[in-house]
Amino acid sequence: MNDNFQMIKVNDLTKEFHLTNGKISYLFRVIQNNGQLEHLYFGKSMRHRDHFDYLTEREVRPSNNQFEGDHTSSMEHIKQEYPTFGATDFRHPAQQIRYPKGDRITDFRYEQHKSYHGKPALTGLPATYVEDSTEAETLEIILQDTYSELKLHLFYTVFADYSAIARSAKYVNHGAETFSLEAAMSASIDFPDKNFELVHLNGAWARENQMERTPIITGTQSVSSARGASSHVHNPFMALVRPDTTEHHGEVYGFSLIYSGNFLAQVEIDTYQVTRAMIGINPFEFSWQLKPQEVFQTPEAVMVYAEHGLNDMSQTFHNLYRKRLARGEWRDKERPILVNNWEATYFDFNEEKILDIAKTGAELGMELFVLDDGWFGERHDDTSSLGDWFENRDKLPDGIKGLSTKVKQLNIKFGLWFEPEMICKDTKLFQEHPDWIMQVPGKSVSHGRNQFVLDFSRQEVVDHIFEQMDAILVDGNVDYIKWDMNRYISEAYSLALPAEQQGEVYHRYILGVYRLYERLIEKYPHILFESCAGGGARFDPGMLYYAPQAWASDDTDAVERLKIQYGTSLVYPLSSMGSHVSAVPNHQVGRMTSLEMRTNVAYFGTFGYELDITLLSDEEKEQVKRDIVFFKKHRKLFQQGQFIRLSSPFTSNETAWMVVSEDQSEAIVGYYEVLAKPNRPYERLVLKGLAEDKLYRINDSDVSRFGDDLMQIGLLFGENFIGKASEYWAKEKIKDFNSKLFHLKAITE
Ligand code: GLA
Fold this sequence. Notes:
By secondary structure, the chain is α+β, with helices and mostly antiparallel strands. The chain is 19% helix and 29% strand.
């Protein structure tokens, strides 16, 4: 029946579905007596069989059972695909629906399935995609609620080239009553054992994406956001790893949500050692009125299986997100080396100063000048003007158009900062539309950085901001936009929605953000977008669909950045990671690090500068020029090569990572030592990802080593790196915050 499909195998008789691409297998079936879905297996690929009956596990256990006389029909003891609460399962559900009667007992039963070549898009939401229908196959399971005219559609996409399954759910109300959706997760899965640890990314402003690994308790653990953005605090990601899993070894199950709003990633171990993992919109502070004939589509979750450690998982995410989540003209292009004026001037600039920076940037080889916050309204500090997106003529007498023309005459592109979702009370926009702020009538509303949140759940608000931005962009000659979002939403309430729909506001808000992005991208496809939210508070897969790069953190200190970039790389590719060289003493932590260290860290990302480059000494300028020449030469490798983490800043004084070209003919290794060590032992850095039989020349010297040798023995860290005796790691180099790059190039005979 399913002959046409290579990766979706269906056993019609036993109603088993096997998604496999030769690397991974995902297996589930329809339970015969209740039509619900039972999870059977997810992991390394397995050969297909004409039945998998033997994977069904049933024990008679003291519990509630669905069918009289049957003591194995407790859903609490059955591994499921998309569980519901009640009707014998007492664990956390993937869905909760309140019926008009007030109860929440559902009974979704298999009705039919459909298979597609390729992958259908998700209406209004970011998602992975294919360019050719042979790249993926999608299975849609349609379940019918026996108690209502609700249908539940579960989508599973298996990709030919990635060890990932993309999942989402769609609820369709074919009836005449309204239902309240109170939980609608994107994916859920029950693993047959509890032999896992939890890896996730947490943080705060200026210290985003700190990697944490913890044992999992029996009971429930989760990471989440209820801040209106994916947030600095947790990233919409978690991984379950085996206790012996390392960066390069052992099983990993990675879960990532393609969404920028409130999320929940949760793991629950029950008393029979089953591990339930789920990810989706955070049910806390969420409800959705599903009216007659309406549809609710959840965001997409991506589940990655990796056999060879965290790096293996990251590489799947990097490749999939770089090639089939990011979109548009910039997706495959090398990204411009930018210079941003924020840490150079903050709000205090005029046109002359800006042109000075742009001119110096162009002379040094930079390719894009970005004018950050402070160019509009009366914005001289952070108390004013958000929402009035027209130029301040005192600072910029010829407006944005005039400035961009002058900047471009210097032979450098022009970029501009916006914070479209925000409003300050001293603006014309607020005078005209005081009701556009998110606020509960009659109750106080909080500010964050002196600003308030525009109600992006309302189309007229989104349209108005589009028009303001469009007025600047239409003749502004803007090549790049930095889209910022500098506070969380705390009183999520829309004056345009009735009381019973207030639970929809957070989700409607983020849909409004997506709509504005979509409209701008459609009209200005050549503009490169970089998303930002007080640094990395919206560094999430949802944003990557619109903005192929994101500002990783407001913390530009090279040492702090080791952790931030290392953690961020767990899910996100280097081509997405905004990383700049900034001034010393560093503005966030006051640390002094060398230009070399700052550059060597920033190279592993999109790369740019964020300091007053007009103040650099001649010697520093020469250094910057050389660094830029080096980066341009190797930019493709940095941004499109395979990134591999070697040594973690979270557990070691030494951080190391590398990028390898697809054909393994070239690699660059970054090695960083935070504190200096006296009287050093012999040290070696074992590399990964090289071709065993290729001979690599190191740093253009006469030293060459084979790939297998470098991956077994490693680089020897003497001064000249060839194993000759050197004097205590070259005495002049004994210092804190030390770094070194190694360039490896295969020698072709
Ligand atoms: C946020 C961003 C910074 C900068 C400022 C401007 O903090 O993360 O990079 O753009 O806003 O106000």
